[in-house]
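Can't paste images in this forum, so I'm doing it all in text. The chain is below; anyone willing to post the predicted structure tokens underneath?
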Amino acid sequence: RPWPRRLRRRWECKGLAPSAGGCAEVWTGAALEPLRAASAASPAPRELRGVSERIEQELERRAAQAAYERYACEWREWWDARRAERAEGLRVRLHTPARRRRERAAANLRDLQAQDSAAAAEDQRRSEARAWASAQGRATEAARRRAEGEAREARAAAAIARARELELERVEEELLRQDRLAQRRAGAVATLAEERLRRSEAQRARSVETEARLQSLQLRDEEERREREAAWDAGMARAGRVEERRSRAVQDMARVRRDTACKADMLREVADRALASNRTESLRRVLEAIAGGAPSSPGGPPRPPRPASAGGRRPSSSGTTLRPALRAALRDGAARPEVPPPSPLTWLEHGEKPLSLSASTELPSTCCAASVMETTGSVSSER
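Text version of the structure:
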């Protein structure tokens, strides 16, 4: 069967042609291979390369169209031969209808041929129009590219000129800055020299003032040293006198301690003897011995009579004898000859302030009396 008209036209627009086997084949253009090799060996500008490519495409399309036309002619011949064979067979069977069918087939064939020629002419016209439009577009594109290149060159020249102007301005500014910097450096050097001169003068004045102050300090230190030496000599003299007083005070304290120890031993012996005899009588004698008024021996003067109390009862011996005896002992201690008090150096040597002479003398007696009272147990109320 013949190929469908729409499919054939579609292939023709694409530059293809239906083959005898019923598939699409592309015209390879083997005759154009030398032209391609020559164009590849001698490269041309971009515009010329584009023109050569379009020329090659057009030649390929025309070769494909010629191949299709040859195929169409061959196919028509084959189809005419087959149709003639069939018509002959039909003429034998049907004379009149066969003639009519042949006439209709011839008319259809003429119509198809007219349509094919019209389509080929239209394709030719369209391809020429496309080629002309592409040539015009290429010319316009080349003109536009030339204009863009000229504009780029103009902009580059303007940029180079502007860069040169900026470079000149920068060089001028750098020269001016260096001049100002040199002037500032010269002024700074002069100011620094003046400042150094002023500092050296001030340093010299300070050194003179410091030297004078040093001399005055040395004189004052010499005077203070002499005063300290004089005060040291006077202090050493006073220390010698203080040492003498301290040695005398130490001797007096040793003598007082010895007397106190002797008196304590004596009172201890008297207390022991009193405990051995009558307790009450021995206690009275011990208290009298403490007071220093009554004799401690049994043969002494008789004691005075005790007054009776208001209630008819005799007061206890502790209430009438102990306190007056202690008062007499204190008066007796106050009447003893005076001994010079110890010096402050003695206090520092012993680590604490010693008791006074009268207290040191009377303390062991009081302690002894208290021990006797605690031993006898007859003066619990006084405790």
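Residues 198 and 211 are 20 Å apart (CA to CA). Strands lie at 17-18, 24-25.
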